[in-house]
Amino acid sequence: MAENISVCVRVRPLNEKEREEGVGWVVDHAGTRITVVDHSNNNNNNSASGTRTSTGNSGSFAAQQTDLGASLGDTLKSYSFDKVYDETWGTKHIYDDVCLPVVDSVVDGFNGTIFAYGQTSSGKTYTMRGSGTWEENKGKENQTTVEGSRDGLLFPVSPAKGLGSGEDASGSGDGDVGILPLAVRGIFRRIRNTPNREFLLRMSYMEIYNEDIIDLLAQSAEGPSGSKNGESGRRLLVKERANGGGPYVCGLREEIVRTEAEVAGWLDRGDRHRHVGETKMNRNSSRSHTLFQMVIESRLPGGGAAEGDGDGAVLVSKLTLVDLAGSERLSKTLAEGKRAKEGAYINKSLLTLGTVINKLSEGQHRHIPYRDSKLTRILQTALGGNSKTAMITNVTPSVLHTDETHSTLRFATRTKSVKNVAVVNEVLNDDALLKRQQREIERLRDRLKERNGGVDIEATEHAIEEMEQHLVEVKEQNKSIEEMLAQEKREKSVLAENLDEKTRKLRNLTDFVLGPGKAAGRQKRDRMSFCPSSIVRPAAALLAEVDREAAKRDALDKIEESSNGGGDGGGGGLLQEALTSLRAQLNGARERAEEMRAQLDAERARSRDLESERELRARAEEELCDAKAEGERLGGVAKSLGEEAAELRRLRSLDQEALARMEEEG
């Protein structure tokens, strides 16, 4: 579910020089609006009411606000935010209101980002780190010990004494605790209060100096940040994860930490290599953006899945705390050389950050220039992505910096319009994912069964599956029958061609035996057809002709006998030769007739086969019609079952939506 970035404003107190010039901004009593003062109409009133003081020790910012609230008639511009804190509020109160929900969500598996934004000398580093130091536990009062700490190191917890005048606040032992130590303490407190999960914590610490990413935990211990070690460290690159997990810094050193003391030790080591320099506006000005990241992995004891009390999911979240370098004007910082170059890189990266915020606040998501700066590239997830993000806007109420404060508040106003979509980050293997899906299916099945008055949904689904399977089998049978019919048609076509060829041969044989004339006359009388009955008729006529020839032969035999009994020798010899010739011809005709009779029997057998094939085809067509009718009936049954299945799925989706609403309301 999308939620806006949480934005609050913290107003630091005036320093000695600023108190001489007067107050330029006032916070309302509700603590939700900050308004610029119109000094053009109220200079006389301000002098009379004591809002402009000549010494740095008389009056406070809160007292000046009270007097201004009674004397102001008009205002030039006002800005509204979730919360506006004046100098009377300590960092612990801001942490509880704005940052604690983000830190708790990180332990629960969400990504979280907290960053401080503002011009140089507005109190960003003081807000993030505080004025206290990492001290040994020597029995000081107003300090909470950390269970399990080693070497006696802990975060000092002293009552808030008010915000210092700029980022160069002194590090006295009774100073205000920053957001970073409070967040680390909150994480370990949550871990101690969650005994049913196992945790693994890794931390990293880096800075972006002149658009180069430097690993503060991997720097050599050659000296403080002003020496060559800060510039000779290995520069790191930002790359994209292949699985779509967002950008990461390749080669960044991560240290496993078990206690707050270990975190304090690594941060102290990294702070020795930060780039810090003096400008006209700030004695200890941050010359780089610093990013502290803590990766939290958690799971059920023993993996959870093996013991049956979970699905083996591992929650992997990341908390990012960013201390941005402040925007600078060379006309006010009077920076030269190296400091001017550093200020130019800082302003360039902040300009890119402002461009990204502008596009996100206007809903332009087609192209966001995250890659134009290392800062926005690393913070891509926190800006319009998968993270719960909070921004603490630090401003100064001095009239000397009214333009810078206007610019900072306009940026904060746009930032609170940016929406993020944070989700729980889980890592699941195949077995854990399958187990979770099975649990969800069982839960939904039980809810659906309860909603349908105890009807066994599983049995209904099984019956639907069986009907669908039966329908598939019927379709396959219909397909096989159609293939058989096609094969029979092809075979019948081949048989018809063979019959045509046999008929042609038989006609030629008839012409040869009976003569062309008779054959021609026979062709005129007989109609050609593929039907077996029309093929038999020429053969029957041929047999009748053969019978007539046999009668002639018998008559000739009788003549021969009579001639042998009563004729003379010469005439008998000639007649004998003629009879012998006729007998030879008749014997040849008889042999041909026998062959034709055999062929005719074969053709009659083939005709009977064709008749049986025709009957088989008729029966196959009837079976096909019956199968098609059965398929149509089963199709109707499947359609009705499909409608019932769709209704069941619709009811299941309604249950899921109702469950989602119940979970959201819960």
Strand content: 15-25%
N- and C-termini, Cα separation: 15 Å
Please describe the biggest sheet, giving its number of strands, its sense, and whether it closes into a barrel.
Answer: 12 strands, mixed
- Counting H and I runs of at least 4 residues, what is the number of helices? 17
Question: Uncertain regions: pLDDT < 50 for 5+ in a row?
Answer: 44-75, 134-174, 220-232, 519-536, 567-571
Helix/strand class: alpha+beta
Quaternary organisation of the protein chains: single chain
Number of strands: 21
Give the overall silhouette. Answer: elongated
What is Rg? 52 Å
Overall pLDDT confidence: 75
Estimated helix fraction: 40-55%
Can you put this structure into words, describing what you see?
Residues 44-75, 134-174, 220-232, 519-536 and 567-571 have low confidence and may be disordered. This protein has 17 helices and 21 strands. The longest helix has 97 residues, at 569-665. By secondary structure, it is of the alpha+beta class. The two termini are 15 Å apart. The protein has helices at 16-21, 43-49, 61-71, 91-107, 124-129, 179-192, 229-232, 260-271, 330-333, 338-361, 374-378, 402-415, 430-451, 457-514, 516-525, 532-566, 569-665; strands spanning 2-4, 6-11, 25-27, 33-37, 75-80, 83-85, 112-118, 135-136, 153-154, 198-209, 212-215, 235-240, 247-250, 255-257, 276-277, 285-286, 289-299, 314-323, 388-395, 419-421, 426-427.
